[in-house]
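Thread: Newbie trying to understand structure tokens

Hi all, I'm a second-year student working on a class project, and my supervisor (Dr. K.) asked me to get a predicted structure for one chain before our next meeting. I've only ever worked with sequences, so writing a 3D structure as a token string is new to me. If someone could post the tokens and maybe explain what I'm looking at, I'd be very grateful. Here's the chain:
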Amino acid sequence: MTQGNWLGLLARHCSRNNPPGWDDLLVGYDFSILDLEEIQAWVRAQNLPGVACAALVALDGEGLLAFETALWAAVTEATGQTPRPGGRRWARAQDRWRVALLKEAVAAPVSAEALAVLVEAVYDTLGCPEDMLDLWQRHAGWERREGAADRAKVLEFIRRRELELVAAQ
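---
Reply by user tm_fold:
Sure, no problem. This is what the structure looks like when written as tokens:
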């Protein structure tokens, strides 16, 4: 589903005015989308000042065991506060990831059944808000049919979420 790295995927689907940032890194890491090396490379590429940012990019070997603590400290240093699960900034970053992954899925030349698998993978990775539940349907095992996703519903979900994200900027 991806071409290149995960942050590259997110960047492709974000507006130029709102590229991936710290909240996206933290949420991407928390949901196991981003790995340590990709985050360190992003921070390194930003050439950010600050003790916590320098400490984050310097971690290696045994020091990587403290990566999560260092990441939270760097986010706080860079933004002044850290988004928390359930908070507005956290939810916005979670939605940015959801939209990017769904855009990638819907752009793939796949059947409705394969799209259902991709949509469900997004659900499994990032959770599922109530308005996402009708994007695909599962069938009972006895029906001998695969689940299917409605491409039009997925596109409408993406459109609504993008409008909400723009309004929240």
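A couple of things are worth pointing out once you decode it. The radius of gyration is 18 Å. The longest strand covers residues 136-137. Feel free to ask follow-ups in this thread.
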